[in-house]
C-alpha cells in the first residue's frame, strides 16, 4: 500500500498537474496543498481537472483560486444540491449541527484542520 503524500508531496503533485493548466496569479500550490490533507495523487489530479472545468463553465481562460476552492468543496463534500428547499427552522438546526462538528474538529488534536462549515446541502448531507 502506498502512503498518502504529505504536504510537500501534495504540493509537488499539484505542480505536475498544474503544468497543463493556465493559472491565475492568485493560485498558490502550497496553500492548496495545506488545505488538502488526506488527498491522494489521484485526488489532486481530479482537483486540478475539476478546477479547470469550473473555469471553462464560467468562460474563463485561466484557473484561479476561486475555481480551486469550488473544486475542493465538490471533492470533499459532494456536489451542491441547490434544488433542495429548507425551511428557516431546518437551516437553523442544520447550522447548530454543523457548528457541533466544527467545535469537535477544532477541539480534538488528532483531527484534520476545519476547512469549512456550511449549511448548503451537498451530496447526501444537509450541510
UniProtKB/TrEMBL annotation:
Domain named AAA ATPase AAA+ lid: residues: 30-69
GO biological process: cell division; protein catabolic process; proteolysis
Residue ranges constituting the Peptidase M41 domain according to the UniProt record: 84-127
Database matches in InterPro entries: AAA_lid_3, P-loop_NTPase, Peptidase_M41, Peptidase_M41-like
SUPFAM superfamilies per record: FtsH protease domain-like, P-loop containing nucleoside triphosphate hydrolases
Annotated GO CC locations: plasma membrane
Needed cofactors: Zn(2+)
Keywords: Cell cycle, Cell division, Hydrolase, Metal-binding, Metalloprotease, Protease, Zinc
Any GO MF annotation of the entry: metal ion binding
PANTHER family, per database record: ATP-DEPENDENT ZINC METALLOPROTEASE YME1L1, METALLOPROTEASE M41 FTSH
Family affiliation: In the C-terminal section; belongs to the peptidase M41 family.
Name the record gives this protein: Cell division protein FtsH
Organism: mine drainage metagenome
Amino acid at each position: 500500500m502506498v502512503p498518502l503524500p504529505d504536504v510537500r508531496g501534495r504540493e509537488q503533485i499539484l505542480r505536475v498537474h498544474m503544468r497543463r493548466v493556465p493559472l491565475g496569479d492568485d493560485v498558490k500550490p502550497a496553500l492548496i496543498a495545506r488545505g488538502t490533507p488526506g488527498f491522494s495523487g489521484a485526488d489532486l489530479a481530479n482537483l486540478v481537472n475539476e478546477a479547470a472545468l469550473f473555469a471553462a463553465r464560467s468562460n474563463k481562460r485561466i484557473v484561479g483560486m476561486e475555481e480551486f476552492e469550488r473544486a475542493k468543496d465538490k471533492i470533499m463534500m459532494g456536489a451542491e444540491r441547490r434544488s433542495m428547499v429548507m425551511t428557516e427552522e431546518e437551516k437553523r438546526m442544520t447550522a447548530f449541527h454543523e457548528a457541533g462538528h466544527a467545535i469537535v474538529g477544532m477541539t480534538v488534536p488528532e483531527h484534520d484542520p476545519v476547512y469549512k462549515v456550511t449549511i448548503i446541502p451537498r451530496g447526501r448531507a444537509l450541510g
